[in-house]
Design brief:
This protein has 273 residues and is α/β, with parallel strands linked by helices. It contains 12 helices and 4 strands; from the N terminus they run αβαβαβααβααααααα.
Length: 273
């Protein structure tokens, strides 16, 4: 059995309960998410539909002109299978209008703008529907910093942020995510032919084995090499985790008072009840 093997039925019950508890206790009943056609958002969509009822879940697909048409087709497949509300909002006009002033912008800037444009749409529709925005970044992406700050990494709550990508595949099998979505190459679909693993330079299954030992088991570099990982791979991954730490925390607030937010004042969201 792999170190990353999870008890999928138990994880499913825990995450469904998490969504119910965190949404209902703040007086909300609905959730909204961006449905990309990828496995992460597909899993969150299925979990949310199970937790809240599909009539209380809103999924929005937000393609850009260079997006793979297959992504939208897979998003629709997931929405139909889970029974949630589904809408398509094209982001090309707003993104292109901005970059008319910056025609030399590189792919990273364009990709970040697309991710943030999508999140502004989700938060606008969250106000429209009275729904909380669900995050769809998994633990592997969060640790590696493979996401856009205030873009796809923004949300009110994230049910899959403690699942490695390998575990996302396992739980997706459990909840019945469509086979084409499970089997396809992971991609942020930021430009034609882009895949996550090609951009990262290693496979999710490979890096998950390293990250689990490095983060969850707190293995030293020496222990990781003894487990069969190369020094270069260890250093590369460790560097990504270290350099992306700023994405995993709230903005740093200069301390002037006795009770500074996120340092001394850290009550949970139901503080005062």
């Amino acid at each position: 059995m792999s170190l990353l093997t999870i008890n999928a039925p138990l994880a499913r019950r825990i995450l469904v309960g998490f969504l119910q508890d965190e949404i209902w206790k703040v007086g909300a009943k609905k959730a909204i998410l961006g449905l990309s056609g990828g496995i992460d958002s597909a899993l969150v969509c299925h979990l949310a539909a199970e937790a809240l009822g599909p009539e209380n879940v809103y999924a929005i697909c937000m393609p850009y002109k260079s997006s793979n048409p297959e992504s939208e087709a897979h998003a629709r497949l997931v929405a139909e299978a889970s029974g949630v509300h589904y809408n398509v909002i094209e982001i090309t006009p707003m993104v292109d209008a901005y970059f008319e002033g910056f025609p030399d912008a590189d792919p990273m800037r364009r990709g970040n703008k697309m991710a943030r444009e999508r999140m502004t749409i989700l938060f606008d529709h969250s106000a429209l529907q009275g729904a909380l925005v669900l995050g769809t970044s998994n633990k592997t992406e969060l640790l590696l910093g493979y996401g856009t700050l205030y873009g796809d990494m923004a949300s009110a709550l994230n049910p899959i942020g403690d699942l490695y990508k390998t575990q996302v595949w396992q739980l997706s099998e459990e909840v019945g995510v469509a086979r084409p979505v499970i089997d396809k190459q992971p991609s942020a679909d930021l430009w034609a032919g882009q895949t996550d693993e090609q951009e990262l330079g290693f496979s999710y299954r490979e890096v998950d084995q390293l990250l689990y030992r490095m983060v969850d088991q707190r293995a030293t570099a020496e222990e990781l090499q003894q487990a069969g990982f190369s020094a270069d791979f260890i250093n590369t991954v460790y560097g990504k985790v270290q350099n992306s730490h700023f994405k995993r925390r709230l903005p740093v607030i200069a301390k002037l008072s006795n009770r500074t937010i996120d340092r001394d004042f850290r009550y949970s969201r139901d503080w005062g009840k």
